[in-house]
Every structure is written in C-alpha cells, then in structure tokens.
Design brief:
This protein is an alpha+beta fold. It folds into three domains: about 30-125, Tetratricopeptide repeat domain (Serine Threonine Protein Phosphatase 5, Tetratricopeptide repeat); about 125-200, Carboxypeptidase-like, regulatory domain (Immunoglobulin-like, Sandwich); about 225-310. The protein is about 50% helix and about 15% strand. It is built from eleven helices and nine strands. The chain has a four-stranded antiparallel β-sheet, with no helix packed on it. A three-stranded mixed β-sheet has the order 4-1-7, covered by helices on one side. A two-stranded antiparallel sheet has the order 8-9. A hairpin with a 2-residue loop joins β2 (about 145) and β3. α1 packs across α6. The longest helix is centred in the C-terminal third of the chain and has 42 residues, at about 265-305. The model is unreliable at about 1-25 and about 220 (pLDDT under 50). Keywords: Membrane, Signal, Transmembrane, Transmembrane helix. This is PEGA domain-containing protein.
C-alpha cells in the first residue's frame, strides 16, 4: 500500500522542472565531487540511481541535494526511495519530516499524510516516538561522524528515526581536534549539529635551559682541604684576641692599681710597673704572632687557590704561569711573612 501511494508521489523533485536546461555532468566518484556538483546534476544523478534500483545511492544524492538547496519535495523522494528499498520505517520517518516542514507545499501534504497514515498500520518498526532528522555539518567538510562510537558517515550527512534519548556525538578529521557533544533526541523533532573543527595548538618546543653545575666536593674537585692553613688562621685570630684582652683589660687594671698607691709605696709601685711591662710584652707578642699566623695561613690558602688546576682544562692564568715559569709560594719568618715570586724575567 505504501509503495503504491509513494509511486503516485513521484513528486516533483525529480521532474524535468528542476532539471530544465541543465547539462548532465559525468558521474562523480567521490563524495567531495558530489558536494561540488550543482543541484540539477545531483537530482539527475539521484534519478538515474533510483531508476537503476540503487536506492541507497539515490538517497545519499537526494540528501546532498537537499543540504545544498533545501526543498521539502526532496524529502518526499527520499521517503519514496526508502519505500522502494523495503525500509518502511525510514520511509514513514521522511514522510513525517516532509509534513512538519514549514515550507512543505500544501498540495502535497495531503498525499504525504495519506501515505503516512496507511503505512502506520502496516509497518511494525515505525513508531511516532521515533526521532526526526539529525543533520550533521562541519567546517571543514568530510569529517567522520560517530554516534555512541558507531560510524554514521562523513559530513554533510544525517541520521533519522533514532529512538529518543541521549547520545554522545563525536566528529573527527585528521589534523584537527575532535569535536564532541551530547545529543538529545526527541520524538518527531529535527535538529542540526554543527561542528567547527579547530586545529590543535602547536606544541611548543621546550627551551633548553643550561644545567647549573653544583660545586663538587673538595675531593672530587681535584684538591683537599688545607687544614693546616685554616689552623694558622684560627691560631692567629686567638693570638690577636689575647693581645686585645691584655691591652684593653689587664694593663688598664694594673695602671688603676698603681694610681691608687701612696707616694711612699715604692716597692709596690715598682712591682706593678714590672708586671705591667710583662703584660705589655705579652700583648705585643700576641699581636705579632697573630699577624704572622694570619698572614701565613692566608698566604697559604691564596697559594693553593692560584696553583689549583681546573678539572677539565687549565685556565689562562695557569697557562701563562707555565709559559713564564712563574712560581708563587708563601714565606713565613720569625719577624715577617709574605710571598716569594720566582720565574724568568
């Protein structure tokens, strides 16, 4: 019954009115070539496929034509193609889509409604609870569309007659970031999913940061700690501190005692004077010893620093020293301290 009524609706999407004056181009072989074809060519190719019994091909080309220039009459021809292919449910879904289309021609609505009403009683797979047309568009085109990980087709494409509910849509194209969204299918309602695909941000090359080498321990750096030199510095510091104690505390105390003596206390005065001179000698000796020790320890450490070779390659100063034969060494005597510089001059 549906097929008979559909035959009466060879409606006008495939009529010569839509193809008048148009030349039929060579049949495209890819979807991109189909998408680039004009409307009249797509309609003619759909008609040829329909007459050859290739109803799936005819449906694809009719839907492409409808996406290029929407015309509700094309939906009638999609319904007729599904009926001829034996898919009564999808045929009725597209009859319903034509009837609710805001631009549907009044003279065709009654015939489409008659086909829909007749088909409801014969097609068990059809239900008025089924969803309408879900159309998928993308920029760029020809992206792959998946609904709940099931491949639907490449954009532009559509799926109709889905059960009401929530679905996960993914649109992907090589070289672009995936587009995902949640789709709510409602009975007898059409919807469009538009995906604007974006190129993923370029990965920034990591900037090479020079590693900061931590100072190596003394034994790894090619030298050892000069404990003797540091001992000399410590001893010199103590000696200077001792001299300051005698000079600032002990000797002033003796002077204070002498100032309190009576003029007749000569023996006591002489004894304090000798003690003061002795303490003064100790202070002077401490200063001299402290200075010598500090000078010697500092000179030794400086010598170690100047003569230490680099772990990797010699420094410019070392190379100059070797070329000139220069040698620097500390010299510590009883009454003096300093450096001895030797070499060719």
């Amino acid at each position: 019954m549906v097929a008979k009524i559909a035959t009466a609706l060879t409606v006008m999407a495939l009529t010569t009115a839509m193809m008048a004056g148009s030349a039929v181009a060579q049949e495209p072989v890819t979807k991109q070539e189909l998408a680039d074809s004009d409307l009249a060519t797509l309609v003619q190719l759909a008609r040829e496929a329909y007459e050859a019994g290739e109803y799936d091909v005819a449906i694809e080309r009719l839907l492409l034509a409808n996406r290029k220039e929407p015309d509700p009459r094309l939906l009638l021809n999609v319904a007729r193609s599904y009926a001829q292919a034996g898919d009564c449910a999808m045929s009725l879904v597209y009859y319903a889509a034509f009837i609710r289309h805001p631009a549907a021609q009044e003279e065709l609505i009654a015939s489409a409604q008659q086909a829909l009403d007749a088909g409801k009683g014969e097609c068990e797979a059809y239900s008025e609870e089924l969803g309408g047309r879900i159309m998928f568009e993308s920029e760029p085109m020809f992206a792959r569309v998946y609904i709940d990980d099931e491949f639907v087709g490449t954009t532009p494409t559509e799926r109709a007659g889905m059960a009401p509910g929530t679905y996960q849509v993914r649109v992907e194209l090589d070289g672009y970031a995936d587009f995902t969204r949640e789709l709510e299918v409602v009975a007898q309602q059409d919807a469009t999913v538009g995906a604007l695909l974006e190129e993923p941000p370029a990965e920034e090359e990591p900037v090479a940061t020079p590693a900061i080498e931590e100072p190596a321990p003394a034994d790894e750096a090619g030298g050892s700690v000069n404990y003797v030199a540091y001992g000399l510095l410590g001893a010199g510091t103590l000696a200077l501190a001792n001299g300051l104690i005698f000079d600032l505390v002990v000797i002033p105390g003796i002077d204070e005692e002498r100032s309190q003596l009576d003029p007749g206390q000569t023996d006591e005065y002489n004894e304090l004077t000798q003690r003061r001179q002795s303490r003064a000698n100790v202070a002077i000796g401490s200063y001299v010893a402290g200075g010598l020790l500090l000078a010697g320890g500092g000179a030794w450490l400086l010598y170690d620093y100047m003569t230490q070779n680099s772990a990797d390659e010699p420094s410019d100063e070392d190379a100059i020293q070797r070329r000139l034969g220069l040698r620097v060494a500390p010299a510590i005597g009883a009454e003096s301290a300093g450096f001895v510089l030797g070499g060719r001059f």
